[in-house]
Amino acid sequence: MIATRTRCLELDAADPLAGLRRQFDLARADAEGLIYLDGNSLGALPSAAAARVRQVVEDEWGGGLVRSWNTAGWIAASERIGDKIAPLIGAAPGEVVVADSTSANLYKVLHAAMAIVRHGLTATTGSAGTRRCIVSERTNFPTDLYIADTVARDHGLELVLVDADDVPSVLDERLAVLMLTHVNYRTGRMFRMAEVTRAARAAGVLMIWDLAHSAGAVPVDVHGGGIERDAADFAVGCGYKYLNGGPGAPAFVWAHPRHLAWMDAREWRQPLSGWLGHAAPFAFTTDYRPAAGIARFICGTPPVISLAGLECGIDTVHAAEPYGGLTALRHKSLALTDLFIELVESRCAGHGLALVTPRDPADRGSQVSFSHATDGYPMMQALIARGVVGDFRAPDILRFGFTPLYTRFVDVWDAVERFREVLERGEWRDPRFAVRAAVT
Amino acid sequence: MIATRTRCLELDAADPLAGLRRQFDLARADAEGLIYLDGNSLGALPSAAAARVRQVVEDEWGGGLVRSWNTAGWIAASERIGDKIAPLIGAAPGEVVVADSTSANLYKVLHAAMAIVRHGLTATTGSAGTRRCIVSERTNFPTDLYIADTVARDHGLELVLVDADDVPSVLDERLAVLMLTHVNYRTGRMFRMAEVTRAARAAGVLMIWDLAHSAGAVPVDVHGGGIERDAADFAVGCGYKYLNGGPGAPAFVWAHPRHLAWMDAREWRQPLSGWLGHAAPFAFTTDYRPAAGIARFICGTPPVISLAGLECGIDTVHAAEPYGGLTALRHKSLALTDLFIELVESRCAGHGLALVTPRDPADRGSQVSFSHATDGYPMMQALIARGVVGDFRAPDILRFGFTPLYTRFVDVWDAVERFREVLERGEWRDPRFAVRAAVT
After folding, report:
1. What pTM does this model have?
2. Shortest Cα–Cα distance, B225 to chain A (Å)
3. Are the C-beta atoms of A379 and A422 separated by less than 8 Å?
4. Pick from B53, B67, B284: CB nearest A57
5. Is B241 an annotated catalytic residue?
6. Do B149 and A273 touch (CB under 8 A)?
7. Are B81 and B61 a contacting pair, CB within 8 Å?
8. Neighbours of A3 (CB within 10 A)
9. Looking at the partner chain, which of B63, B274, B285 has a beta carbon nearest the beta carbon of A147?
10. Is A50 in Cβ contact with B57 (below 8 Å)?
11. How many angstroms separate the CA atoms of A401 and B30, rounded?
């Protein structure tokens, strides 16, 4: 089938998920003629979040004041919102909690992994002495590598970076932890979670997944279909990408119940042993006693206003449930990214763009990246100036995110047409597009 | 002079700071007849925050989308807001950054202190081998003790808790770190920062201050009047108490430039080495290289919406500058707490209340606490039901905070009158006041 703008409009008209777009406050973007393909960096504003944040600030903070910790349920928000994330990643209620940033949560679960390895707490990890490596993928998001490097140093382990193609073949008895981001932030390449997790577990390696670029966009099953030996060990993820939680929204953390069990039995504490992760924070006792279960991963007082935005963002994903939920969202996501790849390759050919994202849907997240050897940065700036917002990732990646909750097929068409014009007219050669912004 | 309600109204009429109250959205509290004496737990809502948060959510997130990291200055907010806190604690611009929670920031600076001790990085610390203790005060806020205990364990040190009266006499060459909260959350007792800091420094002990209950309420001078040997080493503090930043607003962290200098020279990394504390986060390099100066204490992406509330809260304190700033606020605070003590002791006598907060203004923060041996909890609940919001801190403390920006002398009078009635009528004996809320 040959794609045309008319055909794209027909696809939108037939899209059972099309109505979900109305959850978002995109009126100004639409009035501006903006096509937003950066929901993988910052999800769009859910209309409910504007109202809900106003309520939290003006009524709960302003009117309720400190009483709102009880009356407005602030104190339970970290766990309540965690329970809303749980089904989106295949976890059960009580297994996920919202807290801090993805970086901080990685720090916590890596420490948990170190404790497991050091004390031989699981049957599969083998002897502590031989497992000396944390392995990750060379192009993983930097914060994951920075945090893992720090934790590895502090525990006398080595952080080893490998190519994505070498996962899972690199797995052996020297590895303590395999820490991967499910969908790569630059390439959009997605690991086959079930296969990789199974291989890691079979090799006695602890499996930590960063779901920053998957939660809310692709189906995730941290429990491996309920087969205990295929279930991952820990996961963390981001609230402000496909979960639409707002800029810097708190992150989440999941631990498999088999780990929570030994943590409970030994009263294991994560390093950020702040008061709200205490078993009885309002007893104000001198000694730290971690809360049972996943709540032990809470540290200090959460940013309540930002939490309110996050909850509304997660609700936009749950709103897809009557239409098939994440399976349906994934189906649409792949249709959008397939179309984008097809159109860029056919209509923007001859300008030096090379597809970076895998063509195989099984290996692709909800984004498409092209590289350009020399001029990716000004090309993206020129495209943004033409109202198509993607982003650039150094050194050479033009990155486009597709949020099936609000991205339309006609958006894909129009975005590519503008891209074609930017390229054909050489608009990106304007010197102003070479000036680097603080955030690229 | 005998206090009367009329006299209190006269004091308010003559108060040059009285107009600052109009910065806050207290219309509903006033309509409800509410007297809010819990700004030491959660500061009241600045009217500007309601408008500013709406702008951040609806215009910057909703309209600007990801572009707002640059166009709305989100990326610089942690440092910009840190610079606004700096003068409130006697620090210079570039020395304070806003990030994470107080607990997480304590974790970072305690690790910095451990590095200093381990490597003998300052002339005053003596040999690493002999300094084996982190000392804090027995009734310090639990999170400080929990975090210090974890850090001490991880570094093979011991956390030693002493009575407030034993500070600073306990200082000797066995101590590595003295970590104190300037104003105690339960008692309202304030350490004499200059004296204690000087003694710690003279003993070669690193001085860490938690300013949670002082920033924005009492003058603080972390630099010790500019005399290098009297300056503290590190400080952290809370955004949502007297800084009025909103529930769970991010916290702040300060380090003396002498430490930032060696951190820069050695590229020292704090343990939460997240990507936004990198020297060049958008270079997306594999290796962690900490940002120069205090920015290295940033970890992950900050909760931007909550940051907006915090900035407005801090601005309410700066608004006192034309009227004498923190010196004037402190003067009013002491007048309010003096009056409250006088009135409770005279008008609520005979009910078993005992003043816990020091009478000497030099030893008192901006709160007043009374203990009651058996019935503090229901007494506070009954008082809250009568529209006077203080709080209870286990096991026996009734706690009242006085924020001079918005608390009036007549509020003190009226609060004590209602307290008197609650006590005289035995209202607190109603069984419903015995039921513990999640947050006390």
Report:
1. 0.97
2. 32
3. yes
4. B53
5. yes
6. yes
7. no
8. 18
9. B274
10. yes
11. 48
Which residues from A are below 8 Å from B68, CB to CB? 247
**Residue B53 with chain A: CB contacts under 8 Å:** 53-54, 57, 305
Q: What is the DSSP string of B253-297?
A: EEE-HHHHHHHHHHT---SS--GGGBSSGGG--SS--BPSGGGGG
CA atoms within 13 Å, Cβ hemisphere of B128? 12
Non-local (6+) Cβ contacts of A67 within 8 A are B384, B389
**Phi and psi torsions of B390, nearest 5°:** -115, -160
What's the pLDDT tens digit per position in A293-323? 999 999 999 999 999 999 999 999 999 999 9
Q: Do B305 and A53 touch (CB under 8 A)?
A: yes
Instruction: Name which of B65, B101, B246 is nearest A389 (Cβ-Cβ).
Output: B65
Cα three-residue angle B202-B185-B402, rounded to 5 degrees: 110
Q: How close does chain B come to A158, measured CA to CA in Å?
A: 14
Which residue shows structure tokens 């940051």? B307
Chain A residue with the nearest C-alpha to that of B248? A303
| Residue A377 structure tokens | 């940065």
Cis before B281 (ω within 30): no
Tokens of A291: 């809360």
* Selected residue of B273, B287, B388 to mutate for chain A interface (largest A Cβ count, 10 A): B273
Q: Is B185 a catalytic residue?
A: no
Catalytic residue at B108?
A: no
Question: How confident is the model over B157-185, as pLDDT tens digits?
Answer: 999 999 999 998 999 999 999 999 999 99
The domain defined by A5-47+325-434 folds into Aspartate Aminotransferase, domain 1 (3.90.1150)
Q: How confident is the model at residue A118 (pLDDT cuts 50, 70, 90)?
A: confident
The Cα of A124 is separated from the nearest Cα of chain B by a number of Å equal to: 26
Query: From the CA of A403, how many Å to the nearest CA of chain B?
Result: 14
Q: What is the structure's pLDDT at A186?
A: 96
pLDDT digits (tens, 9 = 90+) for A253-303: 999 999 999 999 999 999 999 999 999 999 999 999 999 999 999 999 999
> What distances in angstroms separate CA A429 from CA A384, A418, A423, B240, one per listed residue?
14, 15, 9, 48
Give yes or no: A146 in active site.
no
- Give the pLDDT confidence score for residue B124 in this predicted structure: 53
Region A192-203 average pLDDT = 97
Query: A395 preceded by cis ω (within 30°)?
Result: yes
> Cβ A104–B104 below 8 Å, yes or no?
yes
Residue (of B246, B23, B101, B438) closest to A60 by Cα position: B246
Query: Between A398 and B119, where is the model more confident?
Result: A398
Q: The domain at A73-315 falls in which architecture?
A: 3-Layer(aba) Sandwich (3.40)
Q: What was the pLDDT predicted at A126?
A: 52
Query: Using CB atoms, which residue from B147, B271, B302 is nearest to A248?
Result: B302
Residues A129-165 pLDDT 10s = 689 999 999 999 999 999 999 999 999 999 999 999 9
DSSP string, B28-62: HHHHHT-EE--TTTSPPPBHHHHHHHHIIIIIIII
Please tell me the distance from the alpha carbon of residue B368 to that of residue B393, in angstroms, as a whole number. 12
Most B CBs within 10 Å, among A47, A71, A101, A252, to test the B interface: A101
- Residue A379 has which token pair? 């090309």
**Ranges of chain B with pLDDT below 50:** 123
In chain A, what are the domain boundaries?
Answer: 5-47+325-434, 73-315
Q: CA nearest B273 in A: which residue?
A: A147
Q: Please state which CATH number belongs to domain B5-46+324-434.
A: 3.90.1150.10
Q: What is the pLDDT of residue B436?
A: 87
CB atoms within 10 A of CB A18: 16
Say how many C-beta atoms besides its own lie within 10 A of residue B202's C-beta. 13
